[in-house]
Write a structure and sequence with these properties.
By secondary structure, chain A is an alpha+beta fold. Chain A is built from 9 helices and 6 strands; from the N terminus they run H-H-H-E-E-H-H-E-H-H-E-E-H-E-H. In chain B, the strands form 2 sheets. In chain B, strands 3-4-5-6-7-8-9-10 form an 8-stranded parallel beta barrel, surrounded by 5 helices. Chain B has a two-stranded antiparallel ribbon with strand order 1-2. In chain B, helix 2 packs across helix 4 (about 95-105). The chains are: A alpha+beta, B alpha/beta.
Amino acid sequence: MNRREFILGSATLAAGAACALDEKTTDGGFAPVSWPERGAKEVPVLPPGAHGEKRFASKCVGCALCAAVCPSKCLRPSVNPRRFGRVELDYRHGWCKPGCTRCGEVCPAGAIEPLSKGEKRIVRVGRAIWNADLCLRTSEGVSCHACQKHCPEKAVKAINGAIVVNHDACVGCGACEHYCPARPQTAIRVEGFAVHHETRPMPAGAAAAKDAIAGPGVVAGPEWFLV
Amino acid sequence: MNVTLRQLFAAAFAGGEQSPAPKVTVRTAKHGERVGLLGYGAMRLPTLDGGHANTWDEGASSQGIDQAMVNEHVDFALEHGVNYFDTSPAYCRGESERVMGEALSRHPRDSYYIATKLSNFSPSQYSFEASKKLFEDSLRYLKTDHIDFYLLHAVGNGGFETFGKRYIENGILPWLFEQKAKGRIRNLGWSYHGDPKAVEWLLAKHDAGEYVWDFAQIQMNYVDWRHAQEVNKRNLDASYLYGELERRGIPVVIMEPLLGGRLARHNEALSGEFARLDPKATQASWAFRFCGTYPGVLTILSGMTHKENIVDNVATLSPLKPLTEAELIGLERAAQAYLGTGAIPCNSCNYCMPCPFGLDIPGAFEFMNRVRDRRMADPREIRREYERAIPDPRRRADRCIGCGRCVSHCPQTIDIPKELDAIAAFMEGLGR
């Protein structure tokens, strides 16, 4: 499926959803739900502590212990033939929560280094990319804030109809991708980094400044994600 | 006649000899109609899979409703003096009227009363022509030439402006009164949820003699009697509404006597009070006796999905035993205990559904109320309960994007996105 079909598909789905509601004359029932498309990711998103694709490939033995313990069920064995059997983060079924370091704790091969929660919070495994054409805000005018609402780092903001990602703060946890309602492809998705690096320390007051830019009507990021 | 639940069950299920069948207490409507105090609500009809009909899954169609079971319900109801059947073009995803027409038309037309509504779900139904069509369709589906009780559906839902667009500006009211003069509508009334301005307008017109209402349908139960405004500031207490209607001699039809089953389900806060009053009475029986105690009540509607519900309710009201002063005080205590549980005021009417993004809104609220009612504390137990309540993770509360399209449909005026966010936060707070 090429890009054009993606866009058409998502537009039809969104339009269908909107029509179903506008023409709603009765009670009850469920709108259909679908999983987003897997979508090929050139660089896999690897868990914090893996440090990068090459290092991970040389150490991972494919035991999938990490996938078994992952409480969010987002760490899954890859189906890509080039990295078949090794795990990677798939944000369709869950996202990598800041308070969890289970995969590093169980890895017997040292492929995922055990990190403390504090260390994990500053590792960037990838970055979120917003696709305006697919976003329900631009295509359907739905006042959706799902990505902003769920971002634990407050790196995603809805500003004047656009979704702006602060790439200094984004760690690639995938909350935005997981909760994005656009189908068949999500409008915001995380691209992995070949080599992981750390978030830049944020200058004092930057967070407050960001909130000021976002303006009124914007939902503040929920604190309860930060376990 | 003193009927026990046991005798009724024997009659209902074992085909036991019962002579004569116990009948529910009868009240008289404005034009002399003799209406059973228990009314059959057709919003939660049984489905073939054992659920109730406004929750069936996508792709299912009319065969979702268990017509044979509805027929059985109707036969049993009529046999026991339950002769008021309340439906609407919107109920059960639009199937309720057809199914009820099928079931009722097997009986003589003068043995039952039909109540149906001029629904207000979609702006596409607001025009004069569309409203007329809604009425004619009702007659067709219900296989009849007249409607005994016709209601303006949920006046005030969505605010006074919506009320104006739906019922006033299109000029449908004079037409409806014309139909009443022709005998195609026998009683004309309205059901009320939401904006108090709508009910003020309707009552002012009644007082002025411009539009005289034959009956009205309100939400009444021992919680909403004095505490509806506590639950939501925009509500009117049932005691006020009932008082206003009784003063004008307008018969009152009761909806939500059990708050969508919330007052009938096991609830420790309620059980404690009820056990003190009468350990043998069922939890649901208190709600029906409460409403029946007020003489202005014409009938008490109940969406009885299962036959046991009808049997139980018929037993409670054959005949009605009005509450004593001490019991009324006990119920007031029970209401306060119930409010203390902090239940979300969702009655699972499913008017908010389908959510365009596929969420199971009533499912999430029902789950949360269960957690609070049972005072669950073990995170594992709560998570298991959540997974059972909404098996598909894509329909759970955390998927709400806050578009807010459901809010105007909620007759209880719940801030649905806010409540869903709270549920998502609660589940997230449990940790893993």
